[in-house]
Structures are given as structure tokens and as C-alpha cells.
Amino acid sequence: MDLDFMFEHLPRLIKATKLTIQLTLLSLFFGIFVGIFFAILRTSKNKIFYYISYYYSYILRGTPLLVQIFIIYFGLGQVEWIRESFLWIFLKEPYSCAILAFTLNTGAYSSEIFRSAFETINKGVVEAAEGLGLNKMHTFFKIKLPIAIRQSLPAYGNEMILMLKGTSLASTVTLLDLTGVAKHIISTTFRPVEVFIVAGSIYLLMTFVIHNFIKFLEKKYSFNN
Amino acid sequence: MGLLAYGDTGWGDELFFATLMTIAVAATAIFIGFFLAAIFASFKLSKNKLLNLIGSFYTTVFRGVPELLVIYLFFFGGSGAVMYVAKIFGYDGYIEVNAFLTGAFSIGIISGAYSTEVFRGAVQSIDRGQFEASEVLGFKKKIYYYKIIIPQMLRLALPNISNVWQITLKDTSLISVTGLVEIMRQSYIAAGSTRDPLFFYSFAAVLYLFLTYLSMQLFNKLEKNYNRGF
């Protein structure tokens, strides 16, 4: 192990971490909306909505993220009308393709997390809200959603960590995120162990931060205090 | 559909063998994972603080670092490590490590980290009375583990093993970066030479869906079988 070598390449890897964080946060942010949207569809009584949501999450959770990125980045460019529409401004860029793929993917996983959170809400609470004369919007935003968010925190924390690791696939569509730069350094210097230790530590540090952030939120919003 | 013809004119046979390769890598990886998990789960469950620490280190690192980074470590570092060991034993030549083994081993190490947690959780959720009863009955430690604890543990772990299998199966797609011709790599080759990436990547997605569906059915059956009488 060569410490000088590790310190020499540390700044480049830290710089690349910025992109990794950016990709993670943006995908998680958009993914929450996709997740809530499909979770609501899933609890709807309409069979068509139910099946749309069911198959959406089934397909995106049943295929590797790599396939999803490749379909979006390499595949969609082949379709004539997409290339001629305004969508092409976004879809020709690897950056927005990666975010789109990550968003759809994390949306599928979060929709399952939110759905099970909505299902565990005590019926009495909803009935009480109705009894107090709250309308549907209020019951949803003021009663159901906060309880569901609290319920889904531990599972969502795991999903955040999975997404952080998932952004490493951005390197397969030419983006230079932390993994992309790490691979570049490895393949030019042939020092895989040192680079793995540095890049791996940066990832572990981020995982650690997410883990504790979720723990903090769980404590803050626990029902007991 | 002509693109999927079996034989020289289409990609059907190539994709079929690629699918078999995916299954083979995933199965090898999960067994390497089970082997590692058996060791590290016992470390995590032991009363020795040092062993606990080693076990936690393993699961934290390989569940917290992206799969792709682990694959690069073994892909670029694998033959170096093997040659280093070989040098100690007096062999000085170049050794190339097979892509299949590199892939199966890197995915196996990751899969093992997940399995460790699954095994540990399952052992911990076995009723304490079972441990006490087998001690009182005077079983030897070996028999008591093999005949009483492990069979019960496997039943409890099965639903989570099914999850680990799904994760492992999907992770094998990442081995395509090392050039091993599994579903993803074959689709990449086919997409490149026919200039039809949308079709081939979508077809790859269908193949993966088929595999995950099939394994889900299999695990449901197994679970039913092992839950008889509960």
C-alpha cells in the first residue's frame, strides 16, 4: 500500500464525489414524487390504475438498473419521433438520461415502501379524521402522509443507500462520477487496491452520513416522545 | 423477430447461451456467498469481540460500496493477487484469471455480505428454548448445529434468501463490464452490430424479468414445502 499515491489522487476523487452526490440527491428528490404517485395509484380502487402501478414496480424491480440505463441512453435515441421532439434535448445527454433512469428505478422501490406504509396506517385514525369532518385533501396531507412518511423512514433509508450505490452505474454511460474516476485511475495506474480503499472509504462515509441522518429523523419523529 | 432466429442468421442461440451463463454466474456467486456467510455469520454471532468486529467490517464494506467498484477491484486486481500468492510458492510467470471466476467471486463476496445478515437474523430468531433443550439433551456441538439449528435457520431464512438471489441475479449484469458474455454483454454486442439497441436491451430486460419470475415461483414452492406443519 502506498499512502503517497492515495493522497495524490484523493483530490480528483473528492471532486468526482460532487457528481455522485448530485446524481443521488436529484434522483431521490424526483423519485419521491414518482414513488408517492404510484403508491397512490396502487391503493386506488380502480383496477386499471392498480395494475399500471403493479406492473410498473414489477418491471423496474425485476430488471437490473444497468439494463434500464442502457435502454434509456442507447435505446431511446433510436426512435425517430423522440429524436425530433423537444425530449431529445434531455435524452441526448448522459447526465439527464442517468437521472431519468435512477428516478424511475428508485420511484419503483419507494412506491412499494410508501404503499406498505399507507397500508399500515391504523383505520381508526382515518375514521377519526373523517368523523372530525376533515375533507379528503386534509385527511391525506395532514393525517395519512405524515404517518406514512414516519412509517417508511427505516426502509427509505435503505433505499437511499441503494440509490447512492446505484449512481455508480452512471460511469457506464460516460459520466465521470466517483466510480467512473476511480476506474479511470485504476486502468491508467494499475493500482486497484489503493484506489478501491480511497473511493470505497468515500462511499462508506456517505453511507454513514445517510444512516445517521435517518436515525436522527426516526428519533425526532418517533411516536414515543 | 428475424433478429432472434436460432443459428447463424440471428441472435437467438447467442442470447440463449448468454442466459445460461447469467444463471451459471449467479448460482456460483450465491454459493460462494453462502460459504462466506456461514463463516462471517458465525463471527458475528460469536462472543469474541475481535471476530464480531471482523464480521461487521465485512458486511459494512461490501454492502456500502458500489458493486461496480468491487468488480473493478477484482477485475484489475485479481490476477495481480493470484500472481503474488504464486510468487510466494515459487511460480514467477503471468497468470490470467478467468473472467467467469473473477465475476462470480466479486458478485459472490457482495452476495455473501447480504447472506451474512440473513443467516445471522435467522439464527437469532430461533427460539432460545431450542438451544437450551439441545444442551440439556447432551447433544454434541456439531450434531446440535447440523441437526437442530441449521435446518430451522434455513426455513426462517428462506424468504430473505430469495431476496438475496434476486439481488445477486441482477448484479451479474454488472459483470458485463469485464467482458464475460452474459445477457448484458451479448445484448451489447448484438446491439452494436445490428444498430438496434432498443430492441436488444428491451429483450435483455424481458430475459431478466423471466428469470426473476421463474425464481420467484421456485422459491414460493420451496417456502410452502418447508413451512409444512407450521
Features:
heterodimer, A: 225 residues, mainly alpha, MetI-like fold, 0% strand, B: mainly alpha
* SSE topology string of chain A: HHHHHHHHHH
Q: Determine and state the CATH class of chain A.
A: Mainly Alpha
Shape of chain B: globular
Question: How large is the radius of gyration of chain A?
Answer: 21 Å
Chains forming the largest contact:
A-B, 40 and 38 residues
Class of chain B, according to the CATH hierarchy? Answer: Mainly Alpha
* Mean pLDDT level of chain B: 89
Number of domains of chain B: 1
| Helix-and-strand structural type of chain A | mainly alpha
Query: Between the first and last Cα atoms of chain B, what is the distance in angstroms?
Result: 48 Å
Give, in order, the helices and strands of chain B: HHHHHHHH
Termini separation of chain A: 49 Å
Short description:
The complex is a heterodimer of chains A (225) and B (230). By secondary structure, chain A is mainly α.
Topology:
The complex is a heterodimer of chains A (225) and B (230).
Chain A: H1 3-43, H2 47-62, H3 65-75, H4 80-84, H5 88-91, H6 94-119, H7 123-131, H8 136-166, H9 178-189, H10 192-220
Helix pairs in contact in A: 1-2, 1-6, 1-8, 1-9, 1-10, 2-6, 3-6, 6-8, 7-8, 8-10, 9-10
Chain B: H1 12-45, H2 49-64, H3 67-88, H4 99-124, H5 128-136, H6 141-171, H7 183-194, H8 197-226
Helix pairs in contact in B: 1-2, 1-4, 1-6, 1-7, 2-4, 3-4, 4-6, 5-6, 6-8, 7-8
Textual characterization of the structure:
Chain A has 225 residues and is mainly alpha-helical. Chain A has a single domain (3-220), classed as MetI-like (MetI-like fold, Orthogonal Bundle), CATH 1.10.3720. Chain A has 10 helices and no strands. In chain A, α1 (3-43) crosses α6 (94-119) and α8 packs antiparallel against α10 (192-220). Chain A is flat, with a radius of gyration of 21 Å. The relative contact order of chain A is 0.15. Chain B has 230 residues and is mostly helical. Chain B has one domain (2-226): MetI-like (MetI-like fold, Orthogonal Bundle). Chain B contains 8 helices and no strands. Chain B has helices at 12-45, 49-64, 67-88, 99-124, 128-136, 141-171, 183-194, 197-226. In chain B, α1 (12-45) runs antiparallel to α7 (183-194) and α2 crosses α4 (99-124). The longest helix of chain B has 34 residues, at 12-45. The termini of chain B are far apart.
